TrEMBL record:
This is Flavodoxin-like domain-containing protein. It comes from the Bacteria. Coiled coil: none annotated. It comes from Nocardioides kribbensis. Residues 20-197 form the Flavodoxin-like domain.
Length: 197
């Protein structure tokens, strides 16, 4: 399907504020708490924000390029985003049954490339604090995937820490996530919307 002529499209873009999507995978609820905090920070900065759980996001993928900012977050399993096998292990330890089939890795594989123009993205993960100095993370891998999809990932991937596999988050991490979201939102508001071809 052909895109509308540039002029009407750009006029429509100028008529609304920036929009962000925060997509997350959360096995025990910790990554969801971080995602909600990031979204709150984005909203504080004036960016209209939606939050979605990728385990329930079957129809969201095709609409992702409609957002100006995409933020994705997932728990780090074995130094990368989860796989079906690691999610099965998490379920054995008490995670919800409906999270086994679909995680961030699968969701990102379905995210379409954005149309021409500036589409920004940022990534975060949650990790057990005892492995904070080990290499590899879900956020770093997600950033690489998004760059392959032609998103602009300018902010360094962020990690937020949990005390143990099931949590809770380390004290202060929710506040830190909200401040990061506010920084992302302020950056988007400052650069404004880039005209799309």
């Amino acid at each position: 399907m052909d895109r509308p002529d540039p002029a009407p499209d750009q006029a429509r873009d100028r008529g609304r504020g920036a929009r962000a999507l925060v997509a997350h995978e959360s096995m025990f609820g910790n990554t969801r708490l971080v995602a909600d905090a990031v979204a709150h920070g984005l909203e504080r900065a004036g960016v209209s924000t939606d939050v979605v759980d990728v385990a329930e996001a079957g129809a969201v993928g095709p609409t992702v390029p409609d957002y100006d900012v995409l933020v994705v977050g997932a728990p780090t399993h074995a130094f990368s985003p989860s796989r079906a096998s690691s999610r099965a292990q998490a379920i054995e330890q008490g995670a919800p049954l409906d999270h086994e089939e679909r995680g961030m890795r699968e969701w990102l594989a379905e995210v379409p490339e954005p149309p021409p123009g500036a589409h920004h993205a940022a990534t975060f993960d949650t990790r057990v604090t005892t492995v904070r100095h080990l290499p590899g993370s879900a956020a770093v891998k997600a950033a690489r995937i998004l760059r392959r999809h032609h998103y602009l990932v300018e902010d360094a991937p962020r990690s937020f820490y949990v005390e143990d596999l099931q949590g809770p988050l380390v004290a202060g991490e929710v506040d830190r996530a909200e401040e990061w979201g506010a920084e992302l939102g302020a950056a988007q508001v400052a650069r404004g919307r880039s005209p799309r071809a």
